[in-house]
Structures are given as C-alpha cells and as structure tokens.
Design a protein that fits this description.
The chain is an alpha/beta fold. The protein is built from four helices and eleven strands, in the order ααβαβββββββαβββ. It has a seven-stranded mixed sheet with strand order 3-2-1-6-9-10-11. A two-stranded antiparallel sheet has the order 4-5. A two-stranded antiparallel sheet has the order 7-8. β4 and β5 form a beta hairpin. The chain is globular, with a radius of gyration of 16 Å.
Length: 193
Amino acid sequence: MNKKELRKLFLDKRKQLGEGDYARLNLALYAQFFAGIDLSFIRVLHSFLPIPDNHEPDTWAILDRIRREFPQVRISLPRVSGDHLENIYFEGPHQLETNAWGIREPKQGVPTPTEKLDLVIVPLLIFDKRGHRVGYGKGYYDRLLSQVRPDCLKVGLSLFPPVDAIDDLSATDVPLDQCVMPEGVIGFRDQGT
C-alpha cells in the first residue's frame, strides 16, 4: 500500500479504538519503552507530544518517568516554525500552548541545538518491517531526522504492528533505528535499510 492509503487506514483504526483499548495499548507501550530502550547514555531526548483526539501514542507518562528517574536526561520538545521544527528544552507544562493543529508546544524557552539530540521519539501512524514510517505527510520529522547526528537514536512509537512494506518511499524518508509497540521493540539499525 502507498502512504496515502496507509495514512487513511491507520487514522481510521486509531479512531475506532475504544478508550479502554487505547489506555491498554499506551500502558503496554510505556512498559515496552522502558524495558527495551537504553537511556543510560542519553543526555538530550526529543519527543513529540500527543494529540489526544487523534489517539496518538501518549508520551506524557514516558516523559514524566524520565523526568523523575533519569535526571541526567534533558527533554526537548518540538515547535513548528514555518516548514521545520525547532527544538526547545522542556521546563514544565506552564511553558506549553496549543497550536493551530491541536498540538501542545513550547511558547517560549531555551533552544536545543539539533546536534545535541541523542534520541528522538518519532510520531507515526504506521511503519514497515524495514523501519520506514508513515506520518501525517508534512515532512517535519523527516527534515529534523535528516539533520541529527548519525549516532542519534531514532525511535518510533506505534500502537500497531508493522506492515510488510510501504510502496512509495522517497529519498527524503529517514528510517527509524527502533520502533516500540505494545508487543515489543523492533530494531532496524543493522538491516541496511
């Protein structure tokens, strides 16, 4: 299937999730993230914030635990600026406002240099078995991921298992290194994607 077809299919699947199933999937994602992602060498972690109405994976619980249990990790959040994302260090909820797309983002704060990012938690609708992802189609995260250091870990969060393949990949698509699902964590770094 192509990205447009996959985007529609998995947006619909998310909308059909009942609140109980959505909560259960998020709890499993949370457990798998901390079981499968090594934070010991991470100093700066970038994460998206979820759009609850879209049933996106809930990063709030993950970020809360990181703030409590991993004091060496600084959290950076995205802010849309034109056609790209700015990275802003997260100070607390008082710093956030809702933008035109219903996404919470920092209204002010200290910029995070992209080269400082050690791990990026990447939003997606679905991914394939080689680590390619389908997002909302605006390219914000592909542009960000193309600018991070080669050793920066790119980790997706998915409520669903992977599809076999995405038919219409482009040269600007940046594959993930790992993807966390309720069932476990899949790694892609050594697949030569």
